[in-house]
Design brief:
This protein is about 20% helix and about 35% strand. It has one domain: START domain (Alpha-D-Glucose-1,6-Bisphosphate, Chain A, domain 4).
Length: about 200
């Protein structure tokens, strides 16, 4: 079960890819443990830090996509099925919609579990995070967009706590690692295509 987390607000300008860079590729890898860059970058709530979590996964990919397009797709949950098949039956509950904003709440089915998610961090083109609850588990999921160069990095990390994550950790963690890597890579590819959400 991939669940949710979030934080804050703000706006920054988004850099444009240089003409010399193609939009047709992204490089990626996933880590069992975050390095110091991502660990320092995620604003983990005290109840959701990686240390002591039942499950912790970290994924990243590099892209030359326009950060505004990455952000546009990432903050439209009803469009996630375009690049993440593990997000189903997404329903708005309260707060800003259809584009996410601070305090947005929605429910969805992911990894077969019904999860209710609330955005807790929201800094346009830079940070998105949410917390989620479902099936005896609580989770925090954070996204970092580090768009300081024409080719830049997208990072996503998640922690889960609770009885169910402890019981299924050995099976669930590898599945989450694979699914989140698909999520982040397909997001990058879709944004690189130049297509905008409807």
């Amino acid at each position: 079960m991939s669940t949710s987390t979030s934080t804050g607000t703000g706006t920054i300008p988004s850099p444009s890819p240089s003409p010399g860079h193609s939009r047709s590729h992204s490089h990626s890898h996933s880590d069992s443990h975050s390095d110091s860059h991502s660990e320092a970058g995620v604003n983990w709530p005290a109840a959701h830090v990686p240390e002591g979590a039942s499950i912790y996964v970290s994924n990243r990919t590099r892209t030359v996509a326009d950060p505004e397009l990455v952000w546009a797709w990432l903050t439209r949950p009803e469009e996630w099925n375009r690049f993440y098949g593990n997000a189903k039956r997404i329903r708005h509950r309260s707060g800003p919609w259809p584009q996410l904003g601070p305090g947005s709440r929605f429910s969805w089915i992911t990894f077969g579990a019904l999860v209710t998610t609330e955005i807790t961090e929201f800094e346009p083109y830079t940070r998105l995070a949410w917390t989620g609850e479902g099936l005896g588990a609580s989770a925090h999921h954070a996204w970092l967009l580090d768009a300081d160069e024409p080719e830049w990095e997208i990072v996503t990390e998640e922690t889960q706590r609770g009885l169910l994550p402890r019981l299924v950790r050995r099976i669930m963690r590898p599945q989450m690692q694979r699914q989140h890597q698909r999520w982040i890579e397909q997001l990058a590819r879709l944004a690189e295509s130049g297509e905008k959400p409807a």
